Amino acid sequence: MTSTFTLKLRSPFRAIFKGLLPLFLGTALSVSWAQSPPTPTPSPASGKTELLWLGQAGFRMTSPGGKNIIIDPWISTGPKAPAIYKKDLSALGKVDFVLVTHGHVDHLGDAPEIAKLNNSVLYGPADMVTPLITLGLMPANLTHRFNKSGTIEPFAGLKVTAVHADHSSLIVFNNPATGKAESHPAGEPVGYIIEMENGFKIWHMGDTGLFSDMKFIAEHYRPDMVMIPIGGNFTMGPKDAAFALNTWIHPKMVIPMHYNSNPMTKGTLAEFQEAMKGSPIQIVPMTEGQSLSF
What we know:
With about 290 residues, the protein is an alpha/beta fold. The protein has a single domain (about 45-285), classed as Metallo-beta-lactamase, Chain A (4-Layer Sandwich), CATH 3.60.15. Helix content is about 20%, strand content about 30%. It contains eight helices and 18 strands. The strands form four sheets. It has a seven-stranded mixed sheet, covered by helices on one side.
């Protein structure tokens, strides 16, 4: 009589028993070589992107793969930045990399300190990053210079492309040797197309006025969500932002930003919502310190 059974073996016994199997006469063996179960890892494709608004144009973005990105963090002196982060930048958690759109204080802000605190790379426009190094504000090994149309991949599956923004850029440096403030040109501003591991794309516009190539950027990169300035004076106001979205960009969702923190930028959320009436684009209003997942 021939019996059949299944034997599951684990290393290092597989080779020994495999060699002995022919000795078991009269018995047919069906053997499956069992592997130790792999450690499960979350699938970025099924994950979500979490956004925390830090005020003005500053956000913490947590990617589906768990990477924390800080962009334009005006925190320690930002009037609407959440108190917990104003008190302690380490409360932001582990920051994997930092993005800055241009050199103005309400965008460069605490970016150098956050990068150094986390031993993380600060990415930004080439001619903004260079004076950060030469002025001694950033060590060269924690910086990366790139320009419009340049794409970086700080981590596998995470891509950031610099795109046009219509604005200016300047670094104000308080020189410790003289005790005086100095103004240093900081190249050209940019916006960023940030593509998460699951393909979700965010266009953070930085500071910008209207320019017709918004249409090209939208058609070429196809962002799912746009973060758009609405404060006016230095950037688009509510009506111009609504025009850009409805005429050229047509995203699924929009987060208004760069308002409510500077008395010179008088545009309001209510004015933006009024200008967007009848639009199919979903407006996602946030309050400083609020987190949302997408």
